[in-house]
Amino acid sequence: MGLDRTTDMKLRLGFFILVSLMPAPAGLRAQVAGDPLKCLSIADSGAVADGKTLNTKAIQEAIDLLATGGGGTLVVPKGIFLTASIFLKPGVNLHLEEGAVLKGSTNASDYPRMRTRIEGHYEQNFLPALVNADRCDRLNISGTGILDGSGEPYWQAFWAGHAANKSFKNLDVLRPQMALIENSEGVRITGITFKDSPFWTLHLYRCSNALVENVRFEVPDGKKCPSSDGIDVDSCQNVTIRGCTFRVDDDCICMKGSKGPLAMEDTDSPPVEHIRIENCVFERGHGVVTLGSEATVVRDVVVENCKSTGPIVLARLKLRPDTPQRYEDIHFRNITLDNSGGGVILSVQPWNQYFDLKGQQPPKSIVRNVTLSDIKGCYGSFGVFKNIPGQSDISDITLKDFNVQLKGEELNGCDEVKNLKLENVTVNGKAFTYSPKQ
Hints:
- With 438 residues, the chain is mostly beta strands.
- It has 4 helices and 33 strands.
- It has helices at residues 5-20, 28-31, 56-68, 152-164, and strands spanning 39-41, 50-54, 72-76, 79-83, 86-88, 92-96, 100-104, 114-118, 121-126, 131-134, 140-143, 146-148, 179-182, 188-190, 193-195, 202-205, 208-213, 216-218, 231-234, 237-242, 245-247, 251-256, 272-278, 281-284, 287-291, 297-308, 313-319, 325-338, 344-350, 365-385, 392-412, 417-427, 430-431.
- The protein is globular, with a radius of gyration of 23 Å.
- Mean pLDDT is 92; it is low at 15-36.
């Protein structure tokens, strides 16, 4: 007489616990330093690696069993495992082995409808992400495998809706994010590849002391992949993004928060602070690092030792006329540019999409203490400053130690900046200067 699957899994988990007390063999335990010793493969929970069988229930059962046993590591072995939303629990980590693919379902009805954080607010009846984690301190997502969002049918649905109605919005089509990690401290995401996200790829919301390292974000060339942001840092503090590669079709890294004229009163959206972005490569996207579209307070962001090879805006600061904003202490250092066909170094200007004052007075915004230093290489154009008349104040901008070759030499709107400093800025072999208007 056979055992039911839950009993069988418990026996297997007990075996894994016993084995884990022995000296660790070469393999997973050697790769996942610092994890709890218990490991459970989704294949042992009944998941089938045929790319066709929907494994959501089997994978969630394995997560829940690990959680009730005190935590451990959920292992995705080599193979293609189809699933919809899974929900990690405190103490349960996720490891994708070489050749492992956790592939999102293309059927929106496979995902539950629930309250989900997206675009600066909670959407009450939307799709959760493919991988979800809430209040999972010290979460570790690791390995060399792939999280595949199967994005193309969702992209096609978006563009079909947009073609039928030009006012079509991002949230007018149900599509999941790839990963939503929220309310968690000490998160580590290392080594994996995020591929073909239907919507935002890695969304960190209200996380602190997080590290994203040696992770790749990609969508296919030649495809329009709407809102496929790489990393959205939403209301987080002390986040480090290091050694990552971005090839997406929206912002590579975006600082997010709240929106609307009462955004500063939104207690669900604390300031984005103390962000470090280091040694990353940006191959495709709309912005290397973008502030907005939804953002209120963003401060102490350092981007250094990075390279942009795509026609991307390096520093993109969006000013929403309907939202009070404070962007300060934003610094780009030692940046190499390598795309003579396009790309903009600096863009600080209004962003009017989805404008709604909700009957309130126009708010004020401040951009100050922004520096770009040691910028070198070839790119498309210098950029632009543009205030929101009567609402925004751009001040204390320093451009230092530039040696760049540009197709477009102009830096427009310099007179919109109070205290613009240029130090050793060379464009196309000549010292760059501007004459303030009298």
